[in-house]
Structures are given as structure tokens and as C-alpha cells.
Amino acid sequence: MSVSVLQAPFPWFGGKSRIAHIVWDRFGDVPNYVEPFAGSLAVLLARPHDPGTETVNDLDCYLANFWRAVKSDPAGVAEWADWPVNEADLLARHRHLLSLAEFRERIRTDADYFDPKVAGWWAWGLCSWIGSGWCRVRGDGPPSQLPHLGDAGMGLHRKLPHLGDAGMVGAVLSWLEALSNRLRRVRVACGDWTRILGESVTVKHGITAVLLDPPYSSEEHSVEYGAGSGDVAGAVREWALVNGGNPLLRIALCGYDGEHAMPPEWACVPWKSKGGYSSAGKRGHANRQRERVWFSPHCLSDSRIAPLFAQGGAA
């Protein structure tokens, strides 16, 4: 299986695959890696050396369940993800997944629990749904746009000639098995971002790389980080500032230009994202140019690092 296949089989706004090699240049081959906002795991999956101890977390229980299920039962996830794009099924599954209150509670309280059917349906839907709102509790009305109907498809629905001619199920299973092998020893938590940043998860294991990629303060937050949660990006920045001087921590903080006022000893690397639906408008296009990663003083320095304003590359 080609290393290039090691990416999430669903679209994810804010993925960091284009900057991942720079992040690993700064982190180096660390024995411990922690990612409190897991998302598509673009940086972890792009790691160029053998992994050590790795812990990821996300408050989104559907996302955490997907990574747990792929890790333990890729065949089950592939089976439930195998379905053509169908608008009626998309809306029905959206409503069904939102109704699973017991599932959401168990994902957050039982670290070993996962549901491959929920994982397959969730990933299938994320690849079919256009825009935000998939499995978000924001009313029961249908979306205002059609699902993805383009020839190229998205995520699981993409044409994948590099995976062989075994058909949709075989192609998806090959993809998910490769991810399962990579995630075999990755610990997947589901809860508040601070829960995996204590000493028992970080410096107890030696030099620790921490990737902080919170919802940007100028973005529309998901329901989990919505009303009542405060400024998540600001709280993450404060944690980074308090802990940036620890020689056992190598921290990367992601955000937009002007979002974080970091001390001069923090190296700032600008880059440009590929963009998604938001890039179609003027604001989205401008934000693509504003992407920044700040590296703490104990990260490795590399004079070869240059701003990533070249065209092309994956999102």
C-alpha cells in the first residue's frame, strides 16, 4: 500500500497535510506525540519515521468512533460505507445518527467501545454531504443543496485506480486496512482537549510533540465547541504560552495571521491551504493566505524551511 494512501477517506475542512512535512522537520523523531484536536489526522498519517507513543483526541464522538472502528474493524467499516450516493438515504441516515444519544455517551465514557456501522455511515455521509452540518444538531431540516454528484466524487466515493480493480468494497477495504495498520498503537480519546495534555500523557513519556490545531477563532465552531464553550483557540494559545518553555515539549500552534500574538522566540511559518468550499468566496480565498503555524522555542530549527505559497498539493 502506497504511503500516499495514508490520508483520511473523507473530506475535512482545515486539514494540515500541506504543512505536515514542515511540522515533522520541527518536531523530529520524538518518542511521544499528542494531538488534542484529531480531525483527519493528516499530520500523524504523514509522519516520516516509525511511530512511538501516540495519543489523539477529539470532542466529536462520530469522528473518534471512526478512528477507533478503523483501527479495530476496517472490514466492518468498509462494509457499511459501501453505498451509492442517495439523497433520501443521506437525510435518513443523518437523522438516525443524530438520534443515537446512548452511542455518543458510551463513546465518551468507554475508551474501548466503537460501532463500525455508525463509522461507515458517518464517513459515507461526510463524503456525500456538501458544506457543514453533517451529524450536527442544528435542527432537523434538509440541506439546501444536492449531495455530491460530480464525476470525481469525494473521499470514499472517489475513483481510486491506484488501489486496483477489485471494486468499491475492495478498494475501500484496502484503504482502511492500511489506516488500521498505521493506527494499531494509537490511543484515541474522546473529550475535552485538555484531558490529554497532562504530564501522564505528555512528558512522562519523554520528549513530546504536541500539535495544537483548534477551531480557529474566526471560523464557525461546531456544536461541540459552540455556545458556552468560550474562546477555544484563545484557551489553547494560553496553554501553549504557559508550557512553551518546557524543554521536554515541542509545540506547534495552528491559526490565522493576527489570531495569536506569540513571543518572538516562537518561530512563525506561513503557508497556504488548498481550501475547500469556503475558498470560493473572497473571505475564504483571503483566509487561505493567512494560515500560520507557530513553533515553540524547543522545536528543532531548520534553515531550509520556507513559506509554502506554492500552488498544488493536498488539502
Amount of beta strand: 5-15%
Structural class: alpha/beta
What's the CATH topology label of the largest domain? Rossmann fold
**CATH H level, superfamily name of the largest domain:** Vaccinia Virus protein VP39
Give me the strand/helix succession.
HEHEHHHHHHEEHEEHE
Under the CATH scheme, which architecture of the largest domain would be assigned? 3-Layer(aba) Sandwich
For the secondary structure, the number of strands is 7
Uncertain residue segments: 148-152, 159-167, 219-229, 277-283, 304-315
Quaternary structure of the protein: single chain
Radius of gyration, in Å, reads: 19 Å
Shape designation: globular
Account of the protein in words:
The protein has 315 residues and is α/β, with parallel strands linked by helices. Helix content is 32%, strand content 11%. Strands 3-2-1-4-5-7-6 form a seven-stranded mixed beta sheet, with helices on both faces. It is globular. The two termini are 21 Å apart. Residues 148-152, 159-167, 219-229, 277-283 and 304-315 have low confidence and may be disordered.
Structural features:
single chain, 315 residues, alpha/beta, Rossmann fold, 2 domains, 7-stranded mixed β-sheet, 10 helices, globular
